[in-house]
Amino acid sequence: MRTMVLSLAIMLVAAAAPRGAGAAEIKVLTAGAFKQVLLALLPAFEQQTGHKVTIENDTVGALIKRIDGGEGFDLAVLTPTAVDDLAKKGKFIAGSRKNLARVGVGVVVKEGAAKPDIGSVDAFKKMLLAAKSVAYIDPAAGGSSGIYVAGLLDKLGIAANVKPKAKLIPGGAVAQHIANGEAELGIHQISEILPVKGVTLVGPLPSEIQNYTVYAAGLGANAKESAAAKALLDALSGPASAEVLKSRGMEPAGS
Questions:
Q1: Which pLDDT value is given to residue 6?
Q2: Which domains can be identified in the chain, with CATH numbers?
Q3: Closest to 210 measured CA to CA, from 164, 145, 157, 130
């Protein structure tokens, strides 16, 4: 699978970025879960084009504040709404937004631990009530999965039961904290769970309560390397990226 993904990455980059283009240093700001896709695609992109890409990773909320505060960038991966709202403020090139991928939320436990039943909404509730500790992204940090989980707990009527035993993660991979034994189970985007060693993905949330985060990218209005960033955006949104997305627990988002 890894060889297939790399071959596909090289193919999509070859189609999106012409050889011989002047080398550029591209600054990319990316929200949490999409970082893994970038890491998978960038080696082939850099090899094919000669460009160098620097990635800075943060929550959607934190990146919005940084961009709104005037931080410069060539390409940023946020949510469609965030890109559109910032484009109205002149932070993105109008009309440059492309939806790249979507990812659902899943449950993770430490490797070797029994996998709880999450096959229904009722089973999911019972799991949370029975768990000794539950980790998820701190909603105050601006992470989309944490905001959703907090709202879901309220919707299910178990927020008061779960919050006292919640371990709120300010950012990064919730699964890493599960691997370290800091909580019994975690709830996070599937693409953030799969790369972490020492954990097991129990599965996605039941379809009735599943939530998909869509990631979209746009070109910075004051980008120093607009042409190179456009080539990267074309590579990320090309049809051949589907296998790369799948290998990272995502799927193409559509337009």
A1: 46
A2: 2-102+214-252 (3.40.190.10), 105-209 (3.40.190.10)
A3: 145
Which residue blocks in the chain are alpha helix, DSSP H? 2-16, 35-49, 60-68, 80-88, 121-130, 144-156, 159-162, 174-179, 190-193, 226-237, 242-247
State the pLDDT at residue 184: 98
Closest-CA residue to 6 (of 194, 187, 190, 241): 241
In single-letter form, the type of residue at position 103 comes to: V
Q: How far is residue 154's CA from residue 15's CA, in Å, rounded to a whole number? A: 47
Phi, psi of 56 (to 5 degrees): -120, 125
The residues near 214 (Cβ < 8 Å, ≥ 6 apart) are 79, 80, 99, 101, 102, 253
- Residue 235 has a CB neighbour count (10 Å cut-off) of 23
pLDDT of residue 12: 47
> What's residue 254's pLDDT?
66
DSSP, res 213: E
- Flag residues of the chain having pLDDT under 50: 2-21
Angle formed at CA 67 by CA 64 and CA 68, multiple of 5 degrees: 80
Position 137 scores a pLDDT of 94
In terms of Cβ atoms closer than 10 Å to its own Cβ (0-12, 13-18, 19+), residue 70 is exposed
Pairing of strands 52-58, 25-31: parallel
CB atoms within 10 A of CB 127: 18
pTM over 0.85: no
